[in-house]
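G., the chain you wanted modeled:
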Amino acid sequence: MKYQIAMLIIFVFLSMVSVGCWDRREIETLAFISIVGIDRPDAATDGIRLSAQIIKPFVIGTEEPGDLQERPFWLTSADGRTAGEASANLREESPRIPFWAHNTHVVVGEEFAREGVAEILGFFTRDPETRRRVHMLVVREARAEQLLQAEFELQRLPALGLERLLLASERFIGTTVSSELHDFVMALETEGLEPAVTALRIVDRPPEGDIEGELARDEVCESIRIDGTAVFSSDRMVGWMDRGESRGVAWARDRIQSTKIIVPHPTQEDEAATLRVTDAAGRMEVEVQDGQPSARVTVNACADLVELTAPADPFLDYRKWQAMEEDLAGQIESEIHDALRAAQDRLSADVFGFGQCLARQHPEVWEDVRADWSDEFRELPVQVKVQGEIRESGLLMRAVQPGREE
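Predicted structure as tokens:
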């Protein structure tokens, strides 16, 4: 009995002294970072310039129309010899403590990306507040701090607008390469696979009329669009792929969820049909004969007919239908070949991951070629085989026509 009373007293005492969080931080003291930009301080200086969009919660939460003209974020920057030092120096600019857990994008300027991004990866993968699931992006022909000044017409927070832009492109167009920081680091550490991330471009939208003297505007002067893929060799960016080449890589790597393909009209010249790919499966294999590797890409794509620019017979001849399926396969095959030429001839970067396949399927051969894989990849023979199938034609096989009076 005495033992039970003593344990109860100890339990009550420990409960009283253990209440609360010793390392708590009140939300009113935090500055929530949503997008980060990485550049050099200037062309002649080493080190890091870290730019950050910090959310203004008192603007986001307001419903007063007059307050909507204020930017919902604050753009600031700090320099340092390393990314960690630059992040610490942000505190000299901010009255609140910078908080990284809500950051969703790391944008790298083109010049910095071409020099190599390895020096910033340690901070974003080691700091306990940062997340590996942030999107890593490269801005074309501009600095990251310039892109952080751009906004979206239909979304007040640029971070949320950019998130939805990337998601829509990945799900419905297929021209966006998955570019999370985790994927980039894994590709960087994987033999036979080079990293690739989504490229962005700043779009100028000059306002109509003369805005001189205006205190407030409702229009966006600079916005953001997706513009292909930034391709890396190790941690250095070596060039770009356009949207068609980017989709060619996605076909081969089985990353297409849905996209649209334009093919010739089944019966009329100079007219077109739109096909929506609803299911696609891509596969890459590497074979070795007489010690020489070769690769094969196989894609099976199923699509629906969603548009005709001119009427077609509702009872379309099977051969015409089959011709559209062949055109579908031909368009996909052409995009894959374009991506292969870009990767092998122009960039010398195995963004497909054929080397990774070789290392996994034929490790003894990989040991012989791994040191010179960049040169081996340039000469790698790749066979592409695509099968296209059109499953649905919609409710009508004819195009909508204006009414005619008899």
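The domain at 253-406 is CATH 3.30.300.210 (GMP Synthetase; Chain A, domain 3).

Shout if anything looks off.
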